[in-house]
Amino acid sequence: MTANGSSNSSDQKLLSKLISTTNNQIENTPTSLKALASKAITTSNSVNDNSVQSQQAQSNRVEMMQTIFSYKAVHADELTFEEGAIITVLGRDEPEWWRGRLQNSGAEGLFPVNYVRPYNPPSQTDKSSNSVNQRPVVPTQINVAATLTWWLGLPIVKVRLGYTGRELSFLKVLPCQAGQLKSVDSDISRKLRERDFAIEELINTELAYNNSLIEVRDVFYKPMKASKMLTLQQLDDIFPHWNELIDTSTEFCHDLNDYVKNDSSDQSISQILLKHMIKFKVYRLYCTQQRVACETLQHCLSSNYRLNQLVKIFEKNTKTKGLPLSSYLLKPMQRITKYKLIVEKIATNTPISCPDYDEVVKVNNLMSALLKSIDHAIGSKDNPNRIDWFRSRLIGADKWLLDWLSDNTAQHPHDRPCLVHCGTLYKAKNNREFICFLFNKYLILTTPNYNTNGRLFEFPSTNQLNEIKWSFILYKEPLALNQVSSI
Questions:
Q1: Disulfide-capable partner of 65 in 102, 116, 303, 451 (CB 3.0 to 4.6 Å)?
Q2: Is 106 exposed, middle or buried (0-12, 13-18, 19+ CB in 10 A)?
Q3: What is the pLDDT along the chain (487 residues), one digit of tens a residue?
Q4: Where are the domains of the chain?
Q5: 64-118 — its CATH code?
Q6: CA angle, corner 228, sides to 223 and 229, nearest 5?
Q7: What is the CATH number of domain 187-381?
């Protein structure tokens, strides 16, 4: 624990006021508490004396960065590194790519700026216990006077986060005795460090993701539109809601940037996430159309040689680092999943006494609901194609069943066929193999009219549906689910 950086006189006044207003409690306070108060004042006195020396040392310090993600070089002039590697900065030739030297191998090359963060080498006294390759612990500073307030039974303790520099106030939930302070501080500090790392990950990865969205628009979409090799409908099918994704991410980046730079901002990280959750619904629209986007792109590239060659030229652009367009089209789907993982980290490491605890829990629940709705929507999109595929390969079915499987015009949704689940079953007596299709109204048992080679059944991918010639023989009349009773 360190003093909060206030002047010597203000610390003395604050401590004197605390002691004078709680005179009876101090008489029973352990001597370690008084020693802590004395140490806080002594530390405050030494801050100003050491400030000049620390500034001189900082001016002579070599700029070093620590990687927060792994990166594999795409070009010969780039560095390959693992998470936690230390890089000495040699030059800032480009805004997004700096030149540096890896500390562990001595290799020199370019590295992406959004994959690193500033690194402060450990002090001489810490070098024996801390390896240079360990991730530096973000300091969590606990105000000494506020800590004394906690010890003396008052209800508030304030903690300043090392990365964002923000100060959080925590309501006291349980009585805390002097002997319990160390464990309480340790648990809160650990959780807040992990929460701070998760927020940092959210900010850094959002900036990189936003850059990728803009690169797709500038490197692929605009030139493809200018070439007039595709219709506007084809462009919309390949890049569905892309400009809306860019606007959503850009606004999110703006608020996250304000959160880091502006300590006086009234918005907590949970409030920022809640504000943007409504806008994240664009990911549901995109994800449900992503399959069509990939199929349209594949069809256009295979049927138009000039377009195929043009896209290959675009993919060699230095901004895209050789990644194919199809990989970029997957990024929004990957991003919405990443949001969920990061929000879970923030929620897990937010103490229950934190002022925004309820809001963080709400964000986590909303994000889970959004992911479930996306999964359901994607399944609903694929359902008709799978049902048509199954119907065209079903042998021995009566006309009424085939008509029902092809009926997508029923007025009530529950009357329309909906495939709930499918898989392989084996008869216990003779190990006979069945392929089972569970619909919303019927259970259909079939025997495979092809060699399964012992593999469990699963639907082919959308691109392979028309290529695979499997067929299924109806085993018995479909079992109506409304005639099944549970025990």
A1: 116
A2: exposed
A3: 444 444 445 545 544 544 454 444 434 444 444 444 444 334 444 444 454 454 444 445 578 899 887 888 877 788 999 888 999 999 887 777 889 999 888 999 988 887 888 887 765 544 444 444 443 333 333 343 333 333 333 334 444 444 444 444 443 333 334 344 444 456 777 888 888 889 989 999 999 999 999 999 999 999 999 999 999 999 999 999 999 999 999 999 999 988 887 754 567 888 999 999 989 989 988 988 887 888 788 889 989 999 999 998 988 887 777 778 888 888 998 899 899 999 999 999 988 888 889 999 999 999 989 888 887 777 666 678 888 889 999 999 999 999 888 876 665 556 678 887 788 888 877 888 999 998 888 899 999 988 888 788 888 766 676 778 899 999 989 988 877 654 3
A4: 64-118, 187-381, 393-483
A5: 2.30.30.40
A6: 95
A7: 1.20.900.10
